[in-house]
Amino acid sequence: MSVQVRSVYRRLVFLTWFFTLDLIMFGAFVRLTDSGLGCPDWPGCYGKITPFGASGHIADAVLQQPYGPVSMSKAWIEMIHRYWGSLLGLLIIAITYMAWKYRKQLGRSAGLATFCLVAVCLQGAFGAWTVTHKLMPVIVTAHLLGGMLLLGLMSWLAAREKNHAAIPAGVSFAKPWMAAGLVILFIQIVLGGWVSTNYAALACMDFPTCHGQWLPAMDFSGGYSVLRGLGELSNGEIISQEALTAIHWVHRNFAVFVFVYLFAIALRLRKEQGLRAPAQWLILLLLAQVLTGLTTIFFQWPLLIAVLHNGGAAGLVIAAVTLLVRLSRAGTDYKVLP
Asked: Is there a catalytic annotation at residue 78?
């Protein structure tokens, strides 16, 4: 019985982890297609379960604003994202239930699963606030960060269920370095989210300079003013090009530091058999992020590349968390239960 329970639990964890990654990718698609207000209320669409029931309201909105935030396609994109999020919540409830009920058979604390449940509930709240606050940049960025944090927690859960080769105790020195790397990765994700939610991806159209200068004219106070509406400064004026440039420039240049730091750690860790796979993935994803980031600039933000850039960030979180979890086992005889 206990072997069967562990098998079901493990499969459920990996399925939910996969759904979390997919939802983050689809969330990027929602944001990049400007579908976040495709249904301007929450949790339904004009009070209906599906956009079909709200077709009259959607038609009126399109008639009033033909190029506005509401259309039938955008409504479906937004609602599919909500349905997907609801399914993810149900899966995490199931994981938490099993983690508590069968904690002795699983040989695991239920604390991490409970944290995942709290995180997905907060994500639901931020999803609602994203709509009710009309895509306020700080709310949308927090929603993105929350999704990445949830993915990190699910990756932690999944990494605990994955077998790997023994890791020598001498590698444990890298654990604090990897933990610091995960922190700076999340800082970069926040900076990237701020670029995306402020639509600053094309604020600098050249590389490696910006507007032909290493230090272009920038408005940091305006760009990083937190409590303001979309496309606005804190005083209600339209956000300036200098503010958008500052947002883009900081993300671009901090990326260099993140790349060098994580690349150096991954090169060292890939020498150990038990760390080789996630370390190699970290290296490949770092290179892919550079490629998709540059392609976004040179090809003026094509949708597929922009979504892949968001997916690359999610992949970096998975690889970094997996490395950190495995480093915590260095020098132990840790084995996943059958």
From this structure: yes
